[in-house]
Amino acid sequence: MTGAAATWVDVPEGSGFGPANLPYGVFAPSGGEPRVGVAIGGRVLDLAAALGDPVFAAPALNPFLAQGPARWREVRARVAELLGDERHRAWAEPHLHPLDGVALRLPFEVADYVDFYASEHHAANLGALFRPGQPPLTPNWKHLPIGYHGRAGTVVPSGTPVVRPCGQYRPDPDAPPVYGPTRRLDIEAEVGFVVGAPSKPGEPVPLSAFAEHVFGVCLVNDWSARDVQAWEYVPLGPFLGKSFATSVSPWVVPLAALAAARTAPPPREPAPPPYLRDGGEPWGLDLALEVRLNGHLVSRPPYAAMYWTPAQMLAHLTANGAALRTGDLFASGTVSGPGREQRGSLAELSWGGAEPLRLPGGAERTFLHDGDEVSITATAPGTDGSRIGFGEVTGRVLPARPPEG
Hints:
8-stranded mixed sheet; 26 strands; about 400 residues; 2 domains; fumarylacetoacetase; SH3 type barrels; phenylalanine catabolism; EC 3.7.1.2; fumarylacetoacetase activity; 5-stranded antiparallel sheet; alpha+beta; 9 helices; about 15% helix; Fumarylacetoacetate hydrolase, domain 2; calcium
């Protein structure tokens, strides 16, 4: 652990946005155009104005991300200097905006979106629910990070309402399929990774190059229609049950802020192929997630329990020569731990609806009702001994809008 980071900005205790963090986002001041900023305490620094660099006047992080890791390090050091040295206060302070007075936007333009399935606990739970009487893990699960390609166009910023999707599903196992609003709308508490520097087609990205391509980390809720998913996912995997909405948090925490959060992942047995072996410097992360339903804490998923690391996900994503693009987003899949209170989806928390989740006041949930609001937050150890935060990703369920006819 290094010494405590310094700042002249007032940082409320527990804000998670201290000088060891400095997450990036896109904000629009009252009457102004969207631009890139860095959060500190309860304020956001306008980088275009403070640094005199027009790349930050863009409505997305992408132009800055494309500049690569050397520039990322340079800007982080300069921002830390501006906010940490009292001599720069007169210059920087006029460019700080109160967070409660700005609108937060989608922080980056999503190029491609890939969702993984990296939690052994989650995969085993869903295997038991979806494939009763069979081994909970598929034969390939411990040999590679399983994933699927999602829709970049349905990645939405935190706070965007989620319309209950319609699709085909079976009302019961012996019934023919019907089309209508999902009856099993679920959440997936996930961690997302944002690609900054692209790669060349045909050239896989090795584990050792993870930090040269990935800029930072955000929170993700990959909303799921479990009944639609269960009917459609054989043999090609998730499709309409997943592609209707994926919510992301407004802040991207740089990898540079997570040095103290790195940890060894669980033991892997059998050993994966050489391109996935990470015995040198593994990228397990000690992130503590919290999931709230209508304001009530329902789960505390631990990211440190994830079987596959983000570096392994990236290495596998590009193992066939697929190229990375600036703004690519890949997510971990549902984060779940071994305990019931650590499960990151309602399907697991209610065990497929057989064990309703009890909320304060006597309410029960198996899956989401119209009007329900879900919030996911997370913290991690900071390099100065503090807890750094990721903000939150929220969404409220709106009634379905079935097509006419």
